[in-house]
Structures are given as structure tokens and as C-alpha cells.
């Protein structure tokens, strides 16, 4: 549905997006993650032809976004992060206006969405609360049944009940065979709805992974004798067996007080082992290491997000960003990915 190759956007000397290679498969819910100013909206706006790339290409539904942006937008329903609606109109008037304007407009579907979101359509936009305006924008955007739905922070300003309803609609769009691209700062929402995510950092597509791969990643926290722990975290030691080398990242825990009061003592310390892939194969080895008071938990999107954000090491066994992007971000040991 979306193919970007070497996509760049430069404002003067500033790179808002650098050499972005991205493919989004039709029929999936794809999440875009990244801190404020990372380039998510820039990427979306390039994809829809609202701004032109400095270099590179992008095709949406097979159409080049520069050559024919109008045709691209016929295939897309887009919720901008800062959706603005005519203030003098009532809610219903807004839905009628946009349904008439979009080739795939469907007033009844928009009205149904508004009802599901519990929105009073008699109110003038000017008198709506921020959340009500967001609901109205969603009712506009979720009306047309376009092949691609692009939602920039769709649940911003919504209460938890309405958020859940919006995420349900995203899942329904996918079940309908549509493709959804979703940008959000709420990691749990991305985890719940997306099949795959890309992380942007300072204009670089820094990491990419599928949810099924994420669910195979675990964090093991436990106490080890200090000499063993030191060998595990030493990048020059061969303490980690070859078969685990690219699936395991060890570090000394600095916030593991809940696991052990002995963190940092001379005799033992708390280590954190981030693993990817089959967990069972690690367990015998861990047992031999003499690990104590072990806690195993899913790594979760938060840990991956933090690792990308702070330039830490992420165990492989997950999809990687394209080579160009990784080189731009910097790579260290061949068995690891480091975004620095
Ligand atoms: N027209 C512009 N001129 C100059 N710089 C711009 C322009 N538009 C965006 N930028 C810069 O590009 C960078 C990426 O902005 P973008 O809006 O894509 O970030 P974002 O990831 O969507 O952030 P947020 O999560 O805050 O919405 C920012 O540093 C922003 O200041």
C-alpha cells in the first residue's frame, strides 16, 4: 500500500526526514512511533503529497505522490494531528459537507461513528470541547471507506471509554481489508492494535518490528554472583554462548530494587537480560549460571521504545530498519543493533 524509497525532507540545513525506506503491506495496521519532532507528521504529509520530498520517492496504492497527489488522496482518509473544522457549522453540517466532498463520502457511516462516540451533532463546532471536536474529526474521517486510513494521534484528548471505541473501529477497518497507519504516543494503544511498528528518531527510521516478534521478547531480571555478572556484561568476554549471542543483551540493572536488595553489593548484583526468540532454550543456561530470584516479563513496546530513544542496544531477532537508515544511525557489534 505504501512504498517509500530514500525519502528525504530538508528545511534549509535541517533534515526533518532522512533517507526513509518504508513499506506498509496492504491490510495491516501499521504504527508510527517517535518522540516529538521525530518526523512522523512529515512522513505522513510527504506520503499524501501535501509537501514535496527533497529527495526519494513514495508511492501510495501504486500512485506516485508527487506526480498525482490528488489521485493518492482519493485512496486515503486522513486525520491530521491538528484537525481544524469550520467553527460556524453544527456537527451534522460538518459531516454533510465532508461526505459530499470526498468521492467515497458516506454520510450514514459518519453519522453512525458520531453516535458510537456519543457526540451531540447539534452543537456548533465553536462551542464544542476539544474532545468533541476530535470525535467530530474522527466521524468525518471514518466515513469514507478508502483503502488507506491515516490517523495522526487519533485518540488525543479522548476519555478512556471513547479511546477504546476508536481502537475498536481501527480493528474493524482492518477486518474490512483496509490498511491503517496510526501515529500515537500511547504505546499500549499501538501494542493493542498494530501488527507492525516503525520508530522514527531525529528524522531517521531507526527501528522496525512486528508485534509477533515483540511478543517473543522478554526481560529477565535476577541476581547473580558479581564475577559472573561482570563477565556477562563485558562485551569482550565470551561468557554468552554463540547460539544466544545475537538474541541476548545483558546489562546491570540500576532500578531493580523490587527484585533484590542486594543490587550492587560486592558479592552479588542484579542483572537484566533482554532476550528475543524462544525463551525455553535460555532457561537451562540460566540455571547453570546460578541466577537467583529471577523475574521474567514480556519486554513490551515501552522497553524497545526507550532503547531506540536513548540509543541503547536492542536484541536482534526482530525486523531491522533498512541498511541505509541503520548506517545513518550508527551500528556497533555485528550481532547487535545500536541506535546512537
Ligand atoms: N515547515 C517547516 N519548516 C521547518 N521545520 C519544520 C517544518 N515542518 C516541520 N519541521 C520540523 O521537522 C521536525 C519534524 O516535525 P514533525 O511534525 O514531522 O514531528 P512529529 O514526529 O510529527 O512530532 P510530534 O509528535 O510532536 O507531532 C521538527 O523538528 C519540526 O520543527
TrEMBL record:
Keyword ATP-binding attributed: yes
ABC transporter domain ranges (all copies): 2-227
Disordered as annotated region, ranges: 321-340
Keywords, alphabetical: ATP-binding, Nucleotide-binding, Transport
Molecular function terms, GO-annotated: ATP binding; ATP hydrolysis activity
InterPro entries named among the record's database cross-references: AAA+_ATPase (IPR003593), ABC_transporter-like_ATP-bd (IPR003439), P-loop_NTPase (IPR027417)
SMART domains cross-referenced by the UniProt entry: AAA
Top-level taxon in the UniProt lineage: Bacteria
Protein transport recorded as keyword: no
Family: Belongs to the ABC transporter superfamily.
Name of the featured protein: ABC transporter ATP-binding protein YtrB
Native source species: Crateriforma conspicua
Organism taxonomic ancestry: Bacteria, Pseudomonadati, Planctomycetota, Planctomycetia, Planctomycetales
Amino acid at each position: 500500500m505504501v512504498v517509500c524509497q530514500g525519502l528525504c525532507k530538508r528545511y534549509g540545513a535541517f533534515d526533518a526526514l532522512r533517507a526513509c525506506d518504508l513499506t506498509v503491506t496492504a491490510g495491516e495496521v501499521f504504527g508510527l512511533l517517535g518522540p516529538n519532532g521525530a518526523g512522523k507528521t512529515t512522513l505522513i504529509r510527504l506520503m499524501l503529497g501535501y509537501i514535496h520530498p527533497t529527495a526519494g520517492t513514495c508511492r501510495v496504492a501504486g500512485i506516485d505522490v508527487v506526480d498525482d497527489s490528488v489521485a493518492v488522496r482519493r485512496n486515503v482518509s486522513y486525520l491530521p494531528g491538528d484537525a481544524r473544522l469550520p467553527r460556524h457549522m453544527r456537527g451534522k453540517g460538518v459531516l454533510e459537507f465532508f461526505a459530499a466532498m470526498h468521492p467515497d463520502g458516506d454520510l450514514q457511516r459518519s453519522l453512525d461513528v458520531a453516535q458510537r462516540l456519543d457526540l451531540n451533532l447539534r452543537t456548533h463546532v465553536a462551542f464544542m470541547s476539544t474532545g468533541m471536536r476530535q470525535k467530530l474529526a474522527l466521524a468525518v474521517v471514518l466515513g469514507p471507506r478508502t483503502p488507506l486510513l491515516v490517523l495522526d494521534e487519533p485518540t488525543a484528548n479522548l476519555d478512556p471509554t471513547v479511546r477504546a471505541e476508536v481502537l475498536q473501529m481501527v480493528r474493524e477497518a482492518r477486518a474490512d481489508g483496509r490498511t491503517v497507519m496510526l501515529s500515537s504516543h500511547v504505546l499500549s494503544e499501538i501494542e493493542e492494535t498494530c501488527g507492525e511498528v516503525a520508530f522514527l528518531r531525529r528524522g531517521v527510521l531507526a527501528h522496525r518490528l512486528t508485534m509477533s516478534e515483540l511478543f517473543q521478547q522478554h526481560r529477565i531480571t535476577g541476581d547473580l554472583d558479581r564475577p559472573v555478572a561482570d563477565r556477562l556484561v563485558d562485551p569482550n568476554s565470551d561468557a554468552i554462548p554463540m547460539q544466544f549471542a545475537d538474541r541476548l543483551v545483558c546489562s546491570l540493572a540500576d532500578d531493580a530494587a523490587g527484585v533484590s536488595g542486594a543490587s550492587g553489593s560486592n558479592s552479588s548484583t542484579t542483572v537484566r537480560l533482554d532476550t528475543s526468540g524462544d525463551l525455553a532454550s535460555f532457561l537451562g543456561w540460566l540455571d547453570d549460571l546460578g541466577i537467583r530470584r529471577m523475574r521474567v516479563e514480556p519486554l513490551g513496546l515501552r522497553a524497545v521504545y526507550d532503547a531506540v530513544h536513548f540509543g541503547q542496544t536492542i536484541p536482534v531477532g526482530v525486523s531491522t530498519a533498512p541498511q541505509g537508515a541503520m548506517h545513518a544511525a550508527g551500528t556497533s557489534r555485528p550481532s547487535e543493533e545500536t541506535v546512537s
